Amino acid sequence: MSRLEGTQRIGDAPRVRRLLVIAAVALSALFLLLPLVAIFAQAFAQGAGVFWTNVTNSYTRSAIGLTLFITVLTIPVNLVFGVMLAWLVTRFRFPGRRILQTLIDIPFAVSPVVAGLVYLLLYGRNGWIGGWLDTHDIQLMFAWPGILMVTIFVTCPFVARELIPLMQAQGSRDEEAAVTLGASGWTLFRRVTLPNIRWALLYGVILTNARAVGEFGAVSVVSGAIRGQTNTLPLHLEQLYQDYNTVGAFASAALLALIALLTLAAKAGLEWRAARQEAST
Amino acid sequence: MITLALRAGSSPRRVLPGFGLSLGVSLLFVSLVLLLPMTGLFGQLADLSLAQYWAIITDGRVVASYTVTMGAAAVAAIVNAAFGLLLAWVLVRYEFPGRRLLDALMDLPFALPTAVAGITLATLYSSNGWMGRLLEPLGLQVAYTWVGIALAMAFTSIPFVVRTVQPVLEDLPVEVDEAALTLGASDGTAFRRVILPHLWPALVTGTGLAFVRSLGEFGAIIFIAGNMPYETEITALMIFVKLQEYDYAGASAIASVVLFVSLALLLAINLWQGRFIKRLHGGMG
């Protein structure tokens, strides 16, 4: 085999290629795929009947309910914020634009436990806002509003982070043309911007959903973890696991893993779509 | 180009609508959700004297937790640098059955809730788990040791390296390879001398992000860590323990250290990356 034939690239020798592919696949299978298989194996270790009983018992049902409730409230808040912020930083130049873009990365850098702590300190009974709320009989921490607040905190970068690079790349020529033709703000957004960003927007929502459903560290600080009341699904599975109810814990884990798998499938689907669109233009 | 853009910012004529609305919503949200809660932390810290603060953050058990956290995170980051580079290379350069599936699998640690990862790894690597049963006869105890902590950190942070290196590798023109190989370099030399210099800014950025993530990780670690004081306690757990003892001041002091270190590292990564991007693209940040 001569190297000068065709466009030979580094590492293209069949032996090297085979070795590297096998190494990558084997390590990924051991490191990433095996845990995934183990979740479902554990959840169904005592059969589908036990799995079903675990998933449908009243504490699990209430944990699922609370988790869905928090997620359903989190998504629209972060959707509006993400779109507004992306519009602001990609369509206008103003002093402080870069700082604003850096600030929204804070939740990625802050440990979830620290995130929960700062909310607890401010809105808990000893905090300066929490103290005032307490005298008015409003309790946010160790109740669902606290869980909602920290969930919004940890998930707020996702929509904006998906939209900003895309909207930057697309530029604002279409939108400027629409304005010149007399489109109002809302019409402009709905008819021109939204069709261009809808897939990134959808993916941002999917990521927000995945993280909101699964947040553990921040939620465990502010929830109080009262069974049947302030237990989200990840907190519920932690309690079951600590009580040595492994099969029960993995039943809840399997539900969350299923959401994770759907998230991955959605991403793969959206990427495939984007690649096909690019190929056809 | 940049000065022009800046000047346009101060001009009163904006073609597109919604500046006021989006600015208002964004500032309100950032202030209420991201910045205001930080005041709670500083308020709590203000109640501590400097001596008290210093005593809390240099307490023996807390310092041991820094060592465990930093050490395990460093090991996880280094392992991930190698593993992530291999995965990015294989995914970009080779076509093989199951490539798309492997690519999708890379995002699993981001999509999977950390507590789920935590109990799964703890179960797999405990002495009667699938992996533990194989490793323990060999004398390798993973669960309830720092190896387990590093493993959990590596699991949750591997996508950072893969997803940072992958796009750079994709954009590398074919000529780079050809030039190296035409000059008669072997694969190993060509990779080290020609490819790696292109990749390493991305590799360092990805590894740095993985390290920062590992420092703050909680849910994936606590189940496999064993949480023995001085031995396998991570710093995030120390904060949690203080909170359960209603020691809010102690929790805040340790949290301020964690917060400072992770924000400083993130800033350093951003600045460093910014410098490279400028050098590569001639000033177009």
From TrEMBL, chain A:
Ranges for domain ABC transmembrane type-1: 64-268
Organism: Halomonas heilongjiangensis
Classification via SUPFAM superfamilies: MetI-like
Source domain of life: Bacteria
Subunit organization: The complex is composed of two ATP-binding proteins (CysA), two transmembrane proteins (CysT and CysW) and a solute-binding protein (CysP).
Function of the protein: Part of the ABC transporter complex CysAWTP (TC 3.A.1.6.1) involved in sulfate/thiosulfate import. Probably responsible for the translocation of the substrate across the membrane.
Keywords: Cell inner membrane, Cell membrane, Membrane, Sulfate transport, Transmembrane, Transmembrane helix, Transport
Transmembrane segments: 20-44, 64-90, 102-122, 142-160, 200-226, 246-266
Compartment(s) where it occurs, according to its Swiss-Prot or TrEMBL record: Cell inner membrane
Main location (coarse class): membrane
Topology with respect to the bilayer: Multi-pass membrane protein
Any GO CC annotation of this UniProt entry: plasma membrane
GO molecular function term, any single one: ABC-type sulfate transporter activity
The protein's name in its UniProt record: Sulfate transport system permease protein CysW
TrEMBL record, chain B:
PROSITE patterns (UniProt xref): ABC_TM1
Molecular function in Gene Ontology: ABC-type sulfate transporter activity
Lipid bilayer topology: Multi-pass membrane protein
InterPro entries reported for this sequence: CysT_permease, MetI-like, MetI-like_sf, Sulph_transpt2
Gene3D superfamilies noted in UniProt: MetI-like
Pfam families found in the cross-reference section: BPD_transp_1 (PF00528)
Boundaries of every ABC transmembrane type-1 domain copy: 66-269
Keyword Membrane recorded: yes
Transmembrane segments: 21-43, 63-92, 104-123, 143-162, 248-272
Entry keyword set: Membrane, Sulfate transport, Transmembrane, Transmembrane helix, Transport
Primary localisation category: membrane
One annotated Gene Ontology cellular component of this protein: plasma membrane
Residue ranges the record marks as coiled coil: none
Subcellular location: Cell membrane
Highest taxon, organism lineage: Bacteria
Record's subunit section: The complex is composed of two ATP-binding proteins (CysA), two transmembrane proteins (CysT and CysW) and a solute-binding protein (CysP).
Function: Part of the ABC transporter complex (TC 3.A.1.6.1) involved in sulfate/thiosulfate import.
Family to which this protein belongs: Belongs to the binding-protein-dependent transport system permease family. CysTW subfamily.
Record protein name field: Sulfate transport system permease protein CysT
Organism: Halomonas heilongjiangensis
